[in-house]
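quick one, two chains, predict together pls
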Amino acid sequence: MVVDDTEAILLLISRFVEALGHSALVARNGQQALEVWREEQPDLVLMDVMMPVMSGPEAAVQIKAEAGATWVPIVFVTGVGEENALADAIERGADDYINKPVNFRVLEAKLKAFGRTLDLNRKVRDQSKTLADYYERAEEEKRVVRHLMEQMVNSERLADPQFEYWLSPAESLSGDLIAAARTPGQALHILLADGIGHGLTAALNVLPLTQPFYSMTEKGYSITDILFEMNAKVRQVLPIGRFVCVSLISIDEVSGTIEIWNAGMPPIQILGADKSVLRICSSSNLPLGIVPSHSLDLVPERIYYKDAGYIVAYSDGLVEARNSSQSEYGLHSLLSIIQSTSASSVIESVQANLLEFLAGEQHHDDVSLVVARFGLNETELQAKLDVESAKPAQQASNIDFNQVGECNWRYSLILSAEELRYVNTIPFMMSFVKEIKSLTHVQSDVFLILTELFVNAVDHGLLRLDSKIKTQADGMEVYLAQRAERLLELQDGRIEIDLMGLRYKDSEMLKIRVKDNGPGFDWGATFSSNDSHSIPSATFGRGIALIRALSVKVQFIGLGNEVEIYYLPKSNT
Amino acid sequence: MTPTVQIEGSVGRVILSGQFDFSAHREFRQVCESIIANPDIKEVLVDFQNVNYLDSSALGMLLLLKEKIAAASKTLALVNCRDTVKQVLEIACFGKIFTIR
């Protein structure tokens, strides 16, 4: 755009500009210049300083203000004696000037120079727009993944009085994952996982773990089975070179057993009631996603406890958090703050301690920490079991067995030795139980009863294992080793399981029948009365006592290799 | 970090230095590709002599390298692993799938 109030100069310059291959717009004062600029958005403005209506510098200021981020070069064409006005104009945003009379050689050179700068300017603007688009897209993707993670991680289930956790991502998305769920038998499963790197890709790496973890835990699968599936899933969905470090912890308060499997995570610390370190479970496995499931050793470390204590599991981001002097937080600091704190929330003390240590620095990797407790309600649990075994939850005398009606549904399963070796029977049956309306709210009870009956039939009925072994030192290990060995050798074992839904008044009663083809036992002598306290060993008796406590009737039949129990679901309120 | 390569007969040695993490991704890949493409090299050694830090994305890069080297029918060993490097490899149990010397 050429702006001048002298017609001759206006004509001269615009012709020259057109001769150079540009197209020229004309305006005769500042006001007009502004109007034309608004209308046509020219790339460059050549403007006189002194003009009627509105001066050049005034128009320049206005144009610059309206152009905003878009760069519009403004070049003043000045006469002698206008230096002050010119200086002022340049100060307020004009880009260059050229003296009158116009030297066309210089004007041409200047237009070329501005052309180059304009090209560069446009390129930068395009790139920064692309960058801004990328950024927005990335933010949107993060938002979606964050939502997805929150849904899949299910923080509701993390609100469990048995453990505390803390997860602090290094970026807006975490590559660390903490998940927890309980089996139908109330064993607590805690998953702590760390994907490669941090941010979006790390978060995507850990997501495939959640689905097998929750669904299999809910069906009562062991952590070995869950790990097998998680590894298969990670291998299936992640590219080579991506893997996930995992530790999976199971705490079964009923049997007083902890199971820990650690692959690539820092050593898990088992603390006693006084918070001294009792045992360390170091990583002894390849992270998930590297080798096929069958070449992993998925047998967890087992710990049997009688007293209360703590399990401390964390990601490397916590102990490797560095402050401004490049020293690491370290396991020692973590353990000493856990040991010295008397606050009810151990995690809060650790948070405060780490914050103080970092003194304003950011941790560079995702930080996660789980402090779980075990042996908590041992006495409480025992008391509950004792009371319940002495006084069944539903008084058998209140049940009128004459009112037990016909069968609504029936589910039967027969397994021979071959299947018993590899079928994970109870979780398999639980997926059926889950579908039965009258049982959905009492899955936990059904799971416990089924597990006890099945384990009794297999371990004692078929494999003839002696429960007394369990009471010796290391007894549980010996027992399990013997069990595995005998199961492998078992030739003609057979287990029948029937589940029946019987009509009872306006509700439904569950009848479970389990029969093995072993020689049975003298149940008449063992349970001389209905008094469960007469059962010899505490370890052995617990199972039967539990079943008695939960059900309305337990009946051994024939040789004692067949048992029927009746269970009345509590009303679903 | 700029990895350097030494070739002695049929052995290609990739010498790493400093921090081996995701920022070394591109250089490491380029160096490894050149070694894999070299038909004279039968054995690849990744030398950790001068590495003082290694993170999980470096482990991922090693897994990728292992895969590519196996596809090219060459052998791979991780050598001169000390202190921090050794500790990280141990926690991840990489000794089960890598030759570490």
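The first strand of chain A starts at residue 2 and ends at 3.
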